[in-house]
Amino acid sequence: MPTVIVDYNSGNLHSAAKSFLRMAAEVDAGPVVVSSDPDIVAGADRIVLPGVGAFADCRSGLASYHGLFEAIEDAAIRRAVPFLGICVGMQMMASRGLEHGLDTPGFDWIRGEVVALAPTDPALKIPHLGWNDLVIDRPHPVLNGLQTGDHAYFVHSYHLAASNPADRLAHCNYGGEVTAVVGRDNLIGTQFHPEKSQSTGLRLIGNFLEWNP
Predict the structure, then answer these.
(1) Is 14 part of the annotated catalytic residue set?
(2) pTM of the entire structure?
(3) 26, 57, 137, 170: least surrounded by Cβ within 10 Å?
């Protein structure tokens, strides 16, 4: 069964697909497909949910594809296939998003809220844009080979504040601690873009494609 990168018209998936195809060939992980077809998602061996833009827009965009979220949830929660959320795809795993004064329900897979970045240094600009060092909070198979100080590429103004500290696997510092990776059970999400994070991102993608929680 394939790894499915979910396409719900949230950004250009070309770079993500290219990175996953490259690493799937390297670790012999089988096919990678980009699809919005619920039947294909339902049969996935693992699922990748990207997302760019506003939380509420991504949530409504996903809901506009009839049966797509239900197929994702059935695979990730009931069948427990490995799931990776990227950027807003990771944020939607939270209980709710608090963006632009809205209160938008998330998947409630990782308890917590998506809140605005509030750097203590007023010189730091929002959005948080560019490279930052990861700080690994706890080990995880998808983070194998990564270490504190490795660089990742971020583009965001909000982050997931997890209710359970154990669900935060890594963070970066940007005028305070900013969530970089969350996870529990068969679920993992990155605030940064692994497909744009060069060797750090490729290592994470390869680990995800080999991960059997």
Answers:
(1) no
(2) 0.97
(3) 26
